[in-house]
Design brief:
The complex is a heterodimer of chains A (about 150) and B (about 180).
Chain A: H1 2-12, H2 18-30, H3 38-77, H4 81-109, H5 113-128, H6 133-147
Helix pairs in contact in A: 2-3, 5-6
Chain B: H1 6-19, H2 25-38, H3 44-56, H4 61-99, H5 108-136, H6 140-154, H7 160-181
Helix pairs in contact in B: 1-2, 1-4, 2-5, 3-4, 6-7
Classes of the chains: A mainly alpha (about 150), B mainly alpha (about 180).
């Protein structure tokens, strides 16, 4: 997503500067939820609050249309032999892919004893207790503010 | 369709979107805890279906998972409500930060908080992988699929979409016959 955004907004249309683009990424990274929130910042720089709202609508409308279509047909044909066996292959593969994502994520985030500790405690809490993930996020933020 | 109000769906996804700091992978954990374990709005298997569909479709995969869950709960209205709920807080915060020209990048405190949360997200992601694996990987064939996908991405850096496609085709070849045996 990032290279496409940069090409369109900075290089082709010159609607925002390179620095504004980098600021948008920085904001997208610290706000909760997906990085796509940075599109709201780009929209805001171009056309104020209306621009931000338009940016979010046009970012998510294609997703909503495509995902609902896929879901609709998936749930209709879920029991059919073909769809069932295709997904029986896809589901474990997706789990493998998510496990692989943890490697680059870990190599940037886990840099010392404390960050390793936070990751292990978070894993243990969510995998083996019923404690809310909200608590884990807040705890990790507080530990970071105090010791990192 | 399940008898759950749109307002309840919106509020749960708003909560998830508000506390999912440190990138989308923490959202996967929230989905599972809030929707499968606590509220039992969907089964674990339906949840993994939604994660798989999210990964296959273009756009941000985890947001797409939320859209799929919303559609599963309340059709198109559910999909719209979950999308807005997931991104609402982040969008409002982002506009405020841009409006007030708050420089977040060099800020030491924000940096430290995000480092702590970043570490937690690794743990959260692994815990959801563990839970999903416990539910889905039941025999050596499914284990082989997971292991192959893991190695293909982690070691050989294959394209994830291509990998999902390959897994689907292999699934059709490997599991089709067995599915016929047990209707």
């Amino acid at each position: 997503m990032l290279p496409i955004l940069h090409k369109e907004f900075v290089e082709k249309y010159h609607w925002i500067t390179n620095q504004e683009f980098l600021d948008a990424i920085a904001i997208g990274q610290i706000t909760p939820g997906p990085l796509t929130v940075m599109n709201a910042v780009i929209g805001y720089k171009i056309y104020g609050v209306i621009g931000a709202v338009m940016a979010m609508i046009s970012s998510y409308l294609p997703c909503i249309i495509i995902v609902t279509l896929v879901c609709r047909y998936y749930f209709i044909y879920k029991e059919s032999v073909i769809v069932h066996s295709v997904f029986k292959g896809i589901k474990p593969a997706v789990i493998g892919l998510l496990a692989a994502v943890a490697i680059p994520l870990g190599s940037t985030s886990l840099v010392d004893l404390l960050t390793f500790g936070i990751a292990i405690i978070s894993f243990t809490i969510i995998a083996f207790t019923k404690i809310d993930p909200t608590f884990v996020i807040i705890m990790a933020g507080v530990l970071g503010a105090l010791f990192l | 369709m399940k008898n759950i109000s749109l307002k309840d769906i919106f509020l749960v996804f708003l909560k998830i979107g508000t506390f999912a700091f440190g990138g989308v992978y923490s959202m996967l954990t929230f989905f599972e805890r809030e929707l499968v374990e606590k509220r039992k709005w969907l089964t674990h298997d339906e949840y993994i279906d939604s994660v798989a569909i999210g990964q296959m479709t273009p756009g941000p995969p985890i947001v797409n998972t939320g859209i799929c869950i919303g559609y599963n709960l309340k059709k198109l209205k559910g999909a719209l409500v979950t999308t807005v709920g997931q991104v609402f807080t982040g969008t409002v915060l982002a506009i405020l930060l841009a409006m007030l020209y708050i420089k977040t990048k060099g800020n030491v405190l924000i940096g430290s908080i995000m480092k702590g949360i970043g570490a937690a997200v690794v743990g959260l992601l692994l815990s959801i992988v563990y839970k999903m694996a416990k539910n889905t990987i039941r025999d050596y064939k499914t284990a082989l699929f997971a292991l192959t996908a893991f190695l293909a991405l982690a070691v050989f850096k294959f394209n994830p979409i291509g990998l999902i496609l390959a897994a689907g085709i292999s699934g059709l070849i490997v599991f089709r016959k067995r599915s016929n045996d047990s209707p």
